[in-house]
Beta-glucosidase
Amino acid sequence: MGEIGAAVADEARAKYHDALRQQNHRIFYGLTIWSPNINILRDPRWGRGQETYGEDPFLTAQMAVPFIQGLQGNDSRYYKTIATPKHFAVHSGPESDRHREDVNPTAHDLWDTYLPAFRAAITEGRAGSLMCAYNSVYGEPACGSRMLLEDVLRKDWGFRGFITSDCGAIDDFFETKAHGFSPDADHAVVTALRAGTDTNCGTSYEALLSAVRRGLVGESELDVSLERLFEARMQLGMFDDDKIVPYAQTPFSEVNSRAHSELARRAARESIVLLKNEGNILPLDPEHVRSIAVIGPNAASLSALEGNYNAIPKFPVVPLDGVRAAFQRSQVLYAQGAPHLEGVALPVPETALRPRVGSEEHGLTAEYFSGDLTGKPVVTRVDQRLDFDWTAAAPVPGTSAKKFSVRWTGTIAMPRAGSYKFRVGFPECFPCDDMERFRVYLDDRLIIASEPTSPVKERPAETSQFEISFADTAPHSLKIEYQHESELFGAGFRLDWSPPPAALLDEALRAAHDADVIVAFVGLSPLLEGEEMPVKVPGFAGGDKTDLELPAVQKRLLEELGKTGKPMVVVLMNGSALAVNWAKEHAAAILEAWYPGESGGTAIGETLSGENNPAGRLPMTFYTSVADLPAFSDYSMAHRTYRYYDGKPLFPFGYGLSYTQFRYDALNLSSSHLTAGMSLSVETTVTNTGARDGDEVAELYLMPPRSTIAPRLALKGFTRVHLRSGESKQVKFVLNDRALSTVSDSGERAVEPGRYQVCVRGGQPLEDSRGVVTFTIDGRKTVPR
């Protein structure tokens, strides 16, 4: 995580200084990075769970701190960039209620679950900034809460940086449909400013001028925030000669460097979790698997690589292409199989497109122009699919991100006759100021055209949708022209369709019957789950999930593929936990790949082939049903997450398999009897007893004395070790007083006397008590909050 943070910061620095050279002062080119999201994924229905580090406060802190340190650099005088952990505090859905919700957690839950990762981000990570949340806490908007921003953040934790609001959060103070906390904008901005919110994302702080004139706030009070903000700029080196600011020399070659590309690949490989491997079907032998059917809506999906709040990958590798690269001696058969959700559009698959009549190649001939669709194209190639995200990026060398055009030509053929709905899709843009033009021709007849004469401020869907009736399955000539002009935002093009699910299913079954093994890429899409989205379809609402099931059309796809009798590997791509009960019972293997980034397809292919031995662990509980959970709007931690859930999960937090096996020797404790305040050392030896080299993630769980509010058990340490076949390594953990402490009803953290248990293994002890060791603590010691 530290390396990832450093890579992000290096690229941000390179782009910042390049933007200055071009007199580009627009949003998204600055040096304050609004990351990481360290809210606790208390409920897998939350659509923004994909941005977080999971459901555990200790894990979240351990991931966040090095990421923050990587972002900010290690220079004694200057920040590389400034990290902004968010959203402070007690914020994790539902998205539809976040602008008006008042959360009243118990003191125990506040200090035991919701605040520890923020404390670590500030006291250990030394984050230079922080973002406050939309919701209210104990009756006060989070961005106007003196308890959170002054008492806890600045007094208790010694925070010296600046605070920014979430976008539009100050408006929520006085909006009657939101908190309705303040009578008007003037009073709202004064409340936020005095609580310590130094800068506002939005326009609310324009009311500060009126508030000063009305005598609601003094200029000297504004100076407090101004000083913090200018100090941050000074610490970024914005007022100093570039020659003395070490990070100002960052070359643009850092962007998409080979080292960063390899890091993205490594991150994707290490994130993959092997959930099931019946009969050791995985890894598939590239030398002996003659044919593979790659099926599913995420097999060739760009958005399923990117997730949300993504940068633009220059060379994204979708799973289908990753499988092809890993199994070059095998025949790879592809079928889309199903949409993510019935009636929801997805990109037209390559199987429907040919660059010319009679070609065996998939895709369309693409001509890229540096300006209008005139003259000689700068690049001509075959694009297998029209699913592109070029926001703030040039599509090919020789073109500009500000202005370019593309012409695609070839043929399109439907899997069966009938009426098909299509849509021209564009990436989301903020702000939209781009001029988009497109024309679609079928059999030389203009089907639809968009000719805006002024910058596009929104993306009206009705202007990009069309329907075509096909009387046959023969190829029809297709030509698409796309022109883009903007000040660096919003470029991209996607040709979507909504075919009859039965047509896709028939294709998938034909591919499955002709293959030795099926690899099904199912799951969700960031077009369905994410931040406050205008989505309300079965299973989803406003960006959140309303249940945990795999959408029905995908579940049916798996069931029908299962009837072929061919061995099936299910690869999940999704933002948080799914209740994949059928797959657990019937699939031969399950891989959880998440939204894995630009190199995700490569990492998946390498994992299927065995070049990568998976060692990822689940950072969240996979439940069997939404019925296992309390109400989504209930912020109580009772019966939530592995620490407090007493049911049987589908897959537990910390779970993950390997292609090899590991043995743990007995634990050695520094003492079996401690006095409160003493540290405990825990050591063991891990041995790779299998035939393959691999990584093992050793996890230490602490089980405190039983009480009505203490967690059943809690992760207190983990480490990843690489072991060759037959190799052994010693792992050691040291638990200090904070690690050994628990939180009382009143929110006080202390080391309590009593009988404790500790275990180190590759997952939770659950129903197996082997390797669990007991120790006792005498006395009591409070720990600073």
About this structure: Residues 453-462 have pLDDT under 50 and may be disordered.
